[in-house]
Amino acid sequence: MGIGEDQVQGTSDTVEYDSLFHLLQLLADQAPLRSFDEPLARARAEGAEPAHIALLERARALALDVQEGFARGRQRAAGLSELVDLAKELALPHDLDALLHLVARRSRLLLGLDTAWVSVRDPGQGWFAVCASDGHTAPFARAYPHPAHEGAGNAAIARGGPFWTPDYLADDRFAHHGGADDMVRAEGLRALVAVPLRCAENESTLGVLYVAHRTVRSFSPCEISLMSSLADLTAAAIARTRRLDRVRREVGELEFVTSRAMEFGSSAHRLLDVQSRLTDLALRGVPPHELAERAAAELGGALIIRDAGGAVLASVGDFPDVTDVELERGALDAHAARAPIASAAGLWFCPAMAGDEILGTLVVAPREAVASGQEPMMRVLAQPVSVLLRMHGGAALTEHRLRDELFHELLGGSTLSADRLSDRARWLGIDLAAPYVVVVARPQGGGAREQAARWAAGHVRRHAGLRLADGDGVVMLLPGGDPAAAAGQARDQLTAVLGRPVSVGAAGPATGPSAVAATHREARRCLDAVVALGDNGGIGSPRELGFLGLLLAEQPDAAAFISATVGPLLDYDAHQATALVATLEAYFGTGGSPTRAAEILHVHANTVSRRLERITELLGPGWQEPVRAVEVQLALRLHRARHAIRDRGVRKAASATRPRPHA
């Protein structure tokens, strides 16, 4: 039975509807994309009409568009879900480095690309540096600095939003940077998205977030939107993390300050308690040894209390081997600094003061290294020690002032009589009727007057003498009859204490109060001569300076000069009946020629040579050196002149007593 035209038309419509419904069913089932080709392929295979084929092609295209829309919706939903999860993670506390690494990893996974990195701006330099990366990155990408005005990041910053390129190296819409381009080439990157990280509070740019792929590709609006949202979350997290870091630092600083304040308060309370207890003991008049024991217990070590003159008033504990010079030097340094100081030997010296007056010194040998709290403890302990020294040393301080006043009057020419000055000196334990010397010491370079004065105070206290400050040095009156020995001792000790050369002049011996000023002037002239001769650290006395000392002496003593210079020759000639003096005069008179001296003396040249050898034995081997030779010749001339004057006086006396003839 044949089929009519209406039936054919109906059958054709039914086929079209079935094909269309099939496409709708595939769309509803979210079938794979290749499934949408099956209805069209079957229609062609069955020889469907062209109109039917065209209708199916159009329906297939629309179905694929709808499917793609569904896929984009799912992708966006998945991206938003990822953003929500990331927002939760970013809300947790992180340090900045961990935060940036988290963002780099999640941004790479969000778009399914090959690599991602984050550049952060250096606030001080204006440069960007890669601080975190994920995926395969070139070794130099980490912490790589690049300028803010070049690269895709700069294009994103200038735009104020995302900048993307399907092929980075081929894109000429931005200024390329050599280092960044090298990194892209090393990684084989092509497509790239750069999104600025902008702070919403002040609209500043914190950095740039990058994601990149190794193939050329375009980026959908959904992907760009997701990257923009991720950049906003990242910028907010960075700002929050920096605020938290700043808050943590401030809290840490506050905790440190609070801790230090509590420690200081506790330490100050203890120091105040110790000072109060020990000051009470000092006011009660306890012996110095008892106070020293209490102080040593607080410090945890051995302790010595010395007065201003260096005398040891109390000693507690075992001290290491240390010389008096080291103790004296440490005390003087502490007095000059007016603060506790440590010596090279590990001892600590702390001055005991009342205002600007130095009353004594605490010398501490700690059992262990001095902690930060022990130095304030030394200062605190010095106060009750000062009270004790003031109470026990009031009479001594008065005596020191009286001694200074007496010496000032002796040097300046007092209006008091010699007997009155002698009485005051005896009351202070000084016998001006006994021989004494005056020593003037001056450190090289100056600037050590106080240290030298304090050393001199202890030195004259040990030797029962007097002292006063003298310009940059000190002047001392010391018992004894050898000015050179006193000068040498003062020079050696003061040089060791100060650690610098000290020049010293001395004169004497002298007796009586009226001779002090003259002896002082003579000592000063000797010191000036030593300095003028350039002998820094030398000593000068009339005997040490030879004929120069004879000229500088207040009352030149020619006999002493002759005796000190050629006395051994005179004594030898007197006892052995020899002619060494005459031989020496002839030797100098002929310009140092033994042969010509022998002719003048009418003896053999060998005799002169033997006499010169004897002279060398008596005067020493250096008598022919230029300076010594001049002194020897001067002494010989003075001896001959004194001898001639004495002989002439004897002849005059004999002529006066001889009876005159009568006219």
Give a structural overview.
With 663 residues, the chain is α+β, with helices and mostly antiparallel strands. The chain has five domains: 66 residues; 154 residues, Beta-Lactamase (2-Layer Sandwich), CATH 3.30.450; 106 residues, Beta-Lactamase; 156 residues, Reverse transcriptase/Diguanylate cyclase domain (Alpha-Beta Plaits, 2-Layer Sandwich), CATH 3.30.70; 93 residues, no CATH class. 58% of the residues lie in helices and 15% in strands. α3 packs parallel to α7 and α19 packs across α20. The termini are far apart. The N terminus is likely disordered.
Short synopsis of the structure:
By secondary structure, this protein is an alpha+beta fold. The protein has helices spanning 5-28, 38-45, 50-91, 96-111, 151-159, 178-187, 221-284, 288-299, 324-337, 374-392, 394-412, 418-427, 449-463, 483-498, 515-532, 547-552, 558-576, 580-589, 594-601, 605-619, 626-657; strands at residues 115-121, 127-135, 145-147, 163-165, 191-198, 205-213, 301-307, 312-316, 341-342, 348-354, 357-366, 436-443, 466-470, 473-479, 502-510, 539-540.
Question: How is the secondary structure organized here?
Answer:
Blueprint: H1 5-28, H2 38-45, H3 50-91, H4 96-111, E1 115-121, E2 127-135, E3 145-147, H5 151-159, E4 163-165, H6 178-187, E5 191-198, E6 205-213, H7 221-284, H8 288-299, E7 301-307, E8 312-316, H9 324-337, E9 341-342, E10 348-354, E11 357-366, H10 374-392, H11 394-412, H12 418-427, E12 436-443, H13 449-463, E13 466-470, E14 473-479, H14 483-498, E15 502-510, H15 515-532, E16 539-540, H16 547-552, H17 558-576, H18 580-589, H19 594-601, H20 605-619, H21 626-657
